[in-house]
Amino acid sequence: MLLIPLKHENMEGRRWPIITFGLIALNIVVFLGTHWTIDNQQPEIFDVRVHVLLLAASHPELKVPDDVQQFVEDFQKSNPEAWKEAGSQSRKPFDAEELRERRMQDPEELQPEMDSLAQRFHDVQEHSILQNYAFIPAHKKPITYLTSIFLHAGWLHLIGNMWFLWLSGFILEDNWGRVIYVVFYFLAGIAATQFHAWAYPDSIVPCLGASGAIAALMGAFLVRFPKLKIDMWGTLFFYRFRFKAAAYWLLPLWLASEIFYGALVGKISGVAHWAHVGGFVFGAVAALVIQRTGLEHKANAAIEEKIGWTADPAIVEGTELMNQGKIDEAISVLQKHVAAKPDAADTYYLLQQLYWGRTTYRNTTKPRSSSASCT
User: Fold this and answer.
1) Is the domain 309-363 a CATH 1.25.40 member?
2) First to last CA, the chain
3) Closest CA to 192 of 225, 223, 216
4) Tens digits of per-residue pLDDT, 186-237?
5) Among residues 245, 335, 353, which one has the least CA distance to residue 5?
């Protein structure tokens, strides 16, 4: 069964969601700048790693540099069964290169082979985007807590994450303000990544994608808008259906599915389920803190002060006169206000509306000459 959220009931904000647009744009730019390079690098990385592991497992007496030794030990620790299989001489050769190496039993002949593989390993590691900027739990780098949340494995990965970022992000930005929202997003990404590291501390598989931070937005969405209905589209075999569901049961259901799959398939699924769980929990807790400490209230007050007209008595008076049809009097009041506050952008906008309204009013009230038509 496939379920896709289409929209929710509150798709309008008080101002442009600049931070959400910026995050989406940054993810897209990073993807376009890295996707094809990553695709081109992966076959060579896979090839050299496989041959390093096969040769090291078959001939542990060979000398290797520290970086290769660390990689071999990490693999042996996290994949003991695969390591045992790699060292088996009864196993079918992986390719022609391994078959050639099997015929070279003398360590003095095999050492140059290992030296060559070690040099290739070092070169591909040094230039690999995933090895340097994706998050690898067994080799944590501080910078990758941030860089990994802007890397994506493919178009579907990117589009899915950006759609969820838009749906849950812009409404939180509108309620929290831009500063709280952007700080929350980056802290959420770090927290989700760390949760993944706790779940799989010895993993050497690169973890990438914005889904952990977006799961945190979903957790915050649940806390802030539990009764908001989400319009869903789904398929089940050949049937298509559409329904609305409140966030208070739909989002916990999604969280339960992530916990289930994380416990069932773990790291072999290729999806960082526990990063999603950790992000969701972090987002829900953080939303409660933001709400209970009054940060959200202060942010809302600041937003209303910037966008609301009710803060200035002259604009209130001008608006009331306009609503009463007293166009000229409203213009007079606002012109005095502009003279006192030349930077009042809202006043200029309202004056423009009044000038247009006065012109329209005069044109529609001019007497027209009567005429007769002959047929």
Assistant:
1) yes
2) 70
3) 216
4) 999 999 999 999 999 988 899 999 999 999 999 999 999 999 999 999 898 8
5) 245
